[in-house]
Amino acid sequence: MYSEANIAILCLQLIGGHIGIPLLIFTFIFMRRRRSLVVVHFCISWIIFSISNTLLLYGPTPLDALTSQGICLLAIAAADGSTAMTTLSTFNLLLHLYLCLIRPAWFSQPQTKHRIKYFLSCTPYVLFFIFFFQTYAWSAPTSGVEGPNTFSLHFCTDTGLIWAPGYFFAVALMGLGALLDILIVVTLIQKRSGPITEKKHFTDILIRMSLFTVYRTIYMVLYIVVTLGNGGHIKVGKTELSNLSQVVGYVKAANPLLVVLILGTKSDVLEFWGIKTPSRFRTHYTPCQEALNSGKATRCTCEKFDDPDELDDAVHDMAEMIKRRDVESGRDFDWGKSEGTSTDVTLRGHSINNVEY
């Protein structure tokens, strides 16, 4: 029978990683404004994370000793690999944001741009297999005799430190992610040029990802404390350790659900599902609309996309209206030239430094 804690954890994983994130990817595929390949694979990594951490909950309980050895080893190996994988995919998403905002020259060549995207998308899967097989190499019970790193005869308990490499690597990488967050914020503050509304859009996703990194760091620290306490490596009271273990289980299971909230509450995603958002919360094409309404600006700045066909018809119409207005007023501007900043670009130059979150 499942305990109440296991039922709650399974529900969190099902809502977030088994239903929410696949539905989010489905939305990204059919939206007119597509998401970056890095964003899609970030979501896929969290689906793998959710499945890896619910393998034991899918099986019958209690297990006999021999069955427990194999299933627990598979589950722990997958959990260790997915922890490192999701940490790297989160870091790569921040790195992609950094390159698009601060180093747009890296995306000036389409071939280089696609290589960077594929590299950032694929490396987390490589890391998954590295730590998956590392756990197997350290803990596989070849002789059937319980050792310092093998599972005991009790249901899914271990006495060794097989988890240590993956989790300490994850904590170190999240520290680098925090430094990258700070670097992006400082650079954006120093750059006083560029449209304010567009900066707000990127600042919004940056704040969301930064808070998610903090949340993940707290979870990692709590997990390390609980695991060291269970192994007797640090002294923690049994009652406190039991309560902390439940908290860690809930916090861990809520990770995929947070991914859904971070990426699924963007205005265009909500509008895809028929949920209207107030205009003050809409970030897409806001600078274009303001330029059209004010009559003061002669350039239209907005987000860019990989494929020109992905631009809304309304945005094409808006660009033509602004261009026609400039022609009628006797102005002659080069519509294919950007302003020279990392975020201030014209509609006609939309295919160079694309990022969409």
TrEMBL record:
Swiss-Prot/TrEMBL keywords: Membrane, Transmembrane, Transmembrane helix
Source organism of the structure: Sistotremastrum niveocremeum HHB9708
Domain of life: Eukaryota
UniProt protein name: G-protein coupled receptors family 1 profile domain-containing protein
Record lineage: Eukaryota, Fungi, Dikarya, Basidiomycota, Agaricomycotina
Transmembrane spans: 6-30, 37-58, 118-138, 167-189, 210-229
Key word Membrane present: yes
